[in-house]
Amino acid sequence: MPDRFPADGVVERVTIWEVGARDGLQNEQSIVPLEVKAEFLRRLAEAGLTTLEATSFVHPDWVPQLADAEQLLAGIDRHDGVRYPVLVPNERGLDRALASGVTHIAVFASATEEFARRNLNSDLTGQFEMFAPVVERARAAGLDVRGYLSMCFGDPWEGGVAPEQVADVAARLRELGCSQLSLGDTIGVATPGHVERVLAAVSARGVPVDAVAVHFHDTYGQALANTLAALRAGVSTVDASAGGLGGCPYAASATGNLATEDLVWMLDGLGVEHGVDLDKLVATSLWMAEQLGRPAPSRVVRALGG
Amino acid sequence: MPDRFPADGVVERVTIWEVGARDGLQNEQSIVPLEVKAEFLRRLAEAGLTTLEATSFVHPDWVPQLADAEQLLAGIDRHDGVRYPVLVPNERGLDRALASGVTHIAVFASATEEFARRNLNSDLTGQFEMFAPVVERARAAGLDVRGYLSMCFGDPWEGGVAPEQVADVAARLRELGCSQLSLGDTIGVATPGHVERVLAAVSARGVPVDAVAVHFHDTYGQALANTLAALRAGVSTVDASAGGLGGCPYAASATGNLATEDLVWMLDGLGVEHGVDLDKLVATSLWMAEQLGRPAPSRVVRALGG
């Protein structure tokens, strides 16, 4: 653990939204056994993570890896104070989530026209009509709904994305009933000034900073510097993936999600509370790397696990 | 190249002190041929880097990889506006540097007692007596002298290092005649608040920020976030290694120097001038990785070179 040196202007406490079990595993080619997934979630909870995105109710044909969502949710050993959100793409997914007794869901929106077309078979405004009944029914059933916004900092087909467009999508998802918006740098191209600019635009559209999370990819090595910029802007929920598992199939390299361990190292150094036991987390990622048959991308895992 | 979004409070221009040819190669086990080293330097200069630390005049028994320092310096194709500093450990090394027509040298000091004992066979104060005649004679001969300070943020034997101790060593090296001090996080444990704290301590000891450089290692993934903190504190010289070559043999993993490409990506995004052509630099690191027979650690190189 690093020495503790608080920095001015950084939030005091951060909630880590752990996406390893869903975002981390969804692009794995070989199917991870159900019991390994359950054990992964159990270990993550024991390491002190309190938000574990568990799986996704997308159609099994799209993401075969997560076709066991019902069985996984039925079998996991739920820890007190831990929430297990699941991704829900549409009303059919919501039906499955409700039948599984889920309390937190997330919808996956796009900040750009082209990604909305390719990923949602819709368009930038059409997606709100798609999500409206999902969010409405989920809220009516007492569920909490997060909205993911992908391609907030660049799109592989469109190139640059206007911060005001991101802010507009964020505000509209919030109006639909999303309690939190996770701004995703899906292809990893953001830099710290860009992060500040997008957060300012979102704030100017009336979305409070405590309803905003950030989701950075480390494709170009920028994820932690971008996180620092977000923490200074008041963001207190950060998405990360244990061991750095996963990534975006549309990004230029296999390097993907910000590693939870690298984030925890920085937060420990900054004296920001997060509740995670780094040693237990590293042990979990080393164990998971063994299951997957290759080393974790996280620098901290490699340094401490060697 | 990322979209350009300047951030408040960041310097406008940065000098990249490229250490790949010296710090990057010195720990390579198999000897890199002289002509490959010369070609590496030529390509780095053509990519727009203006400070190329070329080699070291340490005793060949210590660093066999750099035993060809004289031949390399005699043979390199010097570019206008590019300086080729060399590391000089003692007066014998200075004699060799002077005989080679060098104009810029660097001495390698320690911020801690234990590393001074192990690396210099001296102690924290004794090292100044060691370096005094080297710096004095170099200055008298018209050479510019940089001082490296290693272990500024932590020491593998001592643990924590007081920022005031770092500041004291920096101030004393400056009094000896070093024009610039490079503060090294040799084992990669620093975090952004720690960087701010050390820079403030150095400044409080009367060392101007434009005489300070930073040298971060990416052992725990913190190098770029730490660099961002340094840029906000006014530092305008950043050490980096093309492709992320090299590292510290005392650090916990093989992950070492901040990769020049990852730094350039962030600087491009922040709109900070640096003069480097990213594509040419990536091509150089890909070429060097081929010579060394393994991929470059740099995330940008992996993303753009794939």
Helix content of chain A: 40-55%
Assigned CATH superfamily of chain A = Aldolase class I
User: Which consecutive residue ranges of chain A, at least 5 long each, have pLDDT under 50?
Assistant: none
User: What's the oligomerization state?
Assistant: homodimer
Most residues in contact: chain pair: A-B, 49 and 49 residues
Largest sheet of chain A, if any?
A: 9 strands, parallel
Distance between the termini of chain A: 16 Å
Give the helix tally of chain A. 12
Report the count of strand segments of chain A. 9
Count of discrete domains of chain A = 1
Structure commentary:
The structure is a homodimer of 306-residue chains. In chain A, helix 7 (163-176) crosses helix 8 (192-204) and helix 8 (192-204) crosses helix 9. Chain A has a nine-stranded parallel sheet with strand order 2-1-9-8-7-6-5-4-3. Chain A has twelve helices and nine strands. In chain A, strand 7, helix 8 and strand 8 form a beta-alpha-beta unit. The radius of gyration of chain A is 18 Å and the shape is globular. With 306 residues, chain A is an alpha/beta fold. Chain A has one domain: Aldolase class I (TIM Barrel, Alpha-Beta Barrel), CATH 3.20.20. Chains A, B: GO terms for molecular function: hydroxymethylglutaryl-CoA lyase activity; metal ion binding. Chains A, B: Keywords: Lyase, Metal-binding.
